[in-house]
Specification:
Blueprint (H helix, E strand, L loop, with lengths): L26 H23 L20 H89 L17 H13 L4 E2 L8 E2 L1 H10 L9 H4 L4 E3 L9 E4 L7 E7 L2 E5 L6 E5 L7 E4 L2
Parallel strand pairs: 1-2
Antiparallel strand pairs: 3-8, 4-5, 4-8, 5-6, 6-7
Helix pairs in contact: 2-3, 3-4
């Protein structure tokens, strides 16, 4: 076999000059080209070696490197966009679910508040109706008592004098019917409110209630407790009779008054928390008493 002679190409006399050399390729490009070249040379070598044995069959095997086509790049980009859109949709749905849960919670709270307000309004309306009914009943009873007191006064005025020859008598205590009128008036005010300085008809303080009760039978009492404790005749607490005025504190400096109604009880406008009530004298003993009837 004849040996192939490889011609020697003389080197250019300018090859050693840097500015005449081609730009250096990157390492990745060089490696790729080397790989391609190596693959091609290997293919040629295999084909050459098998040439004499298989001269009748041409070599058709080629080596193809995978390439990133435009379609594959578009698919990757589309997949990334779809993933981002799905994440955004999930986030939006989560925000909507949270907002719906918060709205439901607030609606439930608002409903509870509205229900409580409705119940409170209903109770207030019922209390107002009840108070109005009680007030109407007391007013009717007052009218009846006033009519009875007027009738009694007229009868007393028209009655003949027991001793025509006697001189004008001194003021004497009215009949027991007057005491009954006073007590009936006081009981008609039970449940009224206590308000300092009030004089009726639905709110009283202690002395205004006593003053109004005795006015029903024509007895004019002073307005305040201190002066009321100085009226009439002083009586001992062991000799009390219905209609006697009880006072607490010193005579002439009393700070509270009420009226004895019998059975160890008295009626008074007690305080803002109790209003007009009946109480046991044993629970709050009076300092003294006066009798004006």
């Amino acid at each position: 076999m004849e040996e192939a002679l490889i011609p020697v190409v003389p080197m250019s006399h300018t090859a050693h000059i840097r500015s005449h050399r081609k730009p250096r390729r990157s390492a990745s490009k060089i490696a790729m080209r080397a790989g391609v070249a190596g693959g091609i040379l290997s293919t040629v070598a295999v084909a050459g070696a098998s040439g004499p044995a298989n001269a009748a069959e041409p070599v058709t095997q080629t080596l193809e490197l995978p390439t990133l086509t435009a379609d594959l790049a578009a698919q990757v980009a589309e997949s990334a966009d779809a993933t981002e859109l799905a994440a955004a949709n999930y986030e939006l749905q989560a925000e909507r679910d949270a907002a719906a849960a918060q709205a439901a919670k607030e609606a439930k709270a608002d409903l509870a508040v509205a229900k409580k307000k409705a119940e409170a309004k209903k109770k207030a309306e019922e209390a107002a109706r009840k108070a109005a009914a009680e007030r109407a009943a007391r007013d009717a009873e007052r009218v009846t008592l006033a009519a009875s007191a007027s009738a009694s006064a007229s009868a007393s005025a028209s009655a003949p004098s027991a001793s025509a020859s006697a001189s004008t008598p001194s003021v004497t205590a009215p009949a027991s019917g007057s005491v009954g009128t006073v007590i009936a008036f006081l009981k008609a005010q039970l449940g009224d409110a206590y308000v300092m300085g009030a004089t009726g008809p639905n709110a009283w303080d202690c002395s205004s209630l006593v003053q109004a009760a005795f006015r029903e039978v024509g007895v004019d009492l002073p307005r305040v407790s201190q002066d009321q404790s100085m009226m009439g005749t002083e009586v001992s607490l062991s000799n009390l009779q219905p209609g006697d005025i009880l006072y607490w504190g010193g005579k002439g400096s009393a700070y509270h008054v009420g009226v004895y109604i019998g059975g160890g009880q008295y009626l008074d406008a007690a305080n803002p928390s109790k209003g007009v009530v009946i109480q046991d004298l044993s629970g709050y003993p009076a300092s003294g008493a006066v009798r004006v009837l």
